[in-house]
Amino acid sequence: MSDRMTAPEGEYDLARFPEDPRDPLRAWDASDAYLLRHLAESGTRLDGTLVVVGDRWGALTTALAAHRPTQITDSFLGRQATRANLERNGVEADGPRLLTTRDTPPDRVDVLLVRVPKSLALLEDQLHRLAPAVHEGTVVVGTGMVKEIHTSTLKLFERILGPTRTSLARQKARLIHCTPDTATLEARGDDPWPYAYRLPDDIGVLAGRTVVNHAGVFCADRLDIGTRFFLRQLPKAPRGGRVVDLGCGNGVVGTAVALADPDAEVVFVDESYQAVASAEATYRANLPDADGKGGAAVRGRAPGAAGGEAGGAAEFLVGDGLEGFAPGSVDLVLNNPPFHSHQATSDATARRMFTGARRALRPGGELWVVGNRHLGYHVTLQRIFGNSELVASDAKFVVLRAVRRT
């Protein structure tokens, strides 16, 4: 769905990525518009180094493109949306600088705009990473919908950067005003991320092993109960087969496959840069001798390439699900799909993952899915694959299996 955002800088056609005319969700909200109005009404100077953090679909970066902002995002889809929206609105390609959360941030920040993320941990990590570039003259303004900004949000700004207050609410949106001070910046302490912990003893091959989480990854401080249930039900892939951990998060599912079958080729895929970094860290923590000892070797390869070197490999890919994978190039897909898009509940991501899996699987290949019972994934799988089998269930979750027949 493409929509127009009116801001002091002009009107902008914006869309999410991938663009879907059936999608009722907009690429901007009242918090984006509130921040842009504030910058214009307050006369904030934007001629220094402008950094925009967490710009979900590129609305802020597009509207402020004339000031050559640096965007920092954890979302591959958000980054692609920004590129598309810049092009859609005629912005020169050499204007804004697009970075990910895994890139080195600028060494000086004069204006810092923060679209408050859903994850408090990701906000904490981002503020810590940017703090060395912030100075007492830096203008820091956060924005979000009222339901997204909590006392804990304000405390993070205050603990890491300096004194913080909020604005009045407008159209259910609110601003955060933070005044950096040297004493706070110097006393902020260390960034606690990434965080590692020991896995429980009742989850099969991963029992008692280590998982590593970068900030912003789902359930970063504990193993979520859905994944825990899934780990107890994992299928045996064809020996040396190509297995995709789709929406891999911290990579525990794919790592379990690699441990169970050293000849398997495991591909970890997620649209979050933090997630893929976590998956690689988890994999390396549990297969430290993967390179050069006949086990799984970490290597990069184009996702669309089928065949090639047989077995024993791991790939870590940030991207849009299975987009770019060659048809019939995968033996098994394991998936715990998200059912939220930021604050909105949606099954759009799951449907796209299932559709991509059917295309990428070889005939006879299987998709295994874990999800909450109430989401009704069996109906969606039946529609896409023509079949759906209940493998296991408990009071909250189901594990489903779908097979590509032809």
How is this fold's topology laid out?
Elements: E1 2-7, E2 10-15, H1 30-42, E3 50-53, H2 59-63, E4 70-73, H3 76-88, E5 97-100, E6 109-115, H4 120-130, E7 134-145, H5 151-160, E8 164-166, E9 173-178, H6 182-186, E10 195-198, E11 210-213, H7 225-231, E12 242-246, H8 252-260, E13 265-270, H9 273-286, E14 297-298, E15 313-318, E16 330-335, E17 340-341, E18 344-345, H10 348-360, E19 361-372, H11 377-385, E20 389-393, E21 397-403
Parallel strand pairs: 3-4, 3-6, 4-5, 6-7, 12-13, 12-16, 13-15, 14-15, 16-19
Antiparallel strand pairs: 1-2, 7-9, 8-9, 10-11, 17-18, 19-21, 20-21
Q: Percentage of helical residues?
A: 25-40%
Which regions have little confidence, pLDDT < 50, spanning 5+ residues? 291-311
Strand content: 25-35%
How widely separated are the two ends?
33 Å
Going across the major beta sheet, what is the strand order?
14-15-13-12-16-19-21-20
Sheet of most strands: 8 strands, mixed
Output the number of helix runs.
Answer: 11
Using only C-alpha atoms, the radius of gyration works out to 22 Å
Mean pLDDT score:
91
**What is the general shape?**
globular
**Total E-strand runs:** 21
In terms of structural class, how would the helical and strand content be classed? alpha/beta
What can you see in these coordinates?
There is one protein chain. Helix 2 links the parallel strand 3 and strand 4 (70-73). Helix content is 27%, strand content 28%. The two termini are 33 Å apart. The chain has eleven helices and 21 strands. The chain has helices spanning 30-42, 59-63, 76-88, 120-130, 151-160, 182-186, 225-231, 252-260, 273-286, 348-360, 377-385, and strands spanning 2-7, 10-15, 50-53, 70-73, 97-100, 109-115, 134-145, 164-166, 173-178, 195-198, 210-213, 242-246, 265-270, 297-298, 313-318, 330-335, 340-341, 344-345, 361-372, 389-393, 397-403. Mean pLDDT is 91; it is low at 291-311. It has an eight-stranded mixed sheet, sandwiched between helices. By secondary structure, the protein is of the alpha/beta class. Helix 10 (348-360) runs parallel beside helix 11.
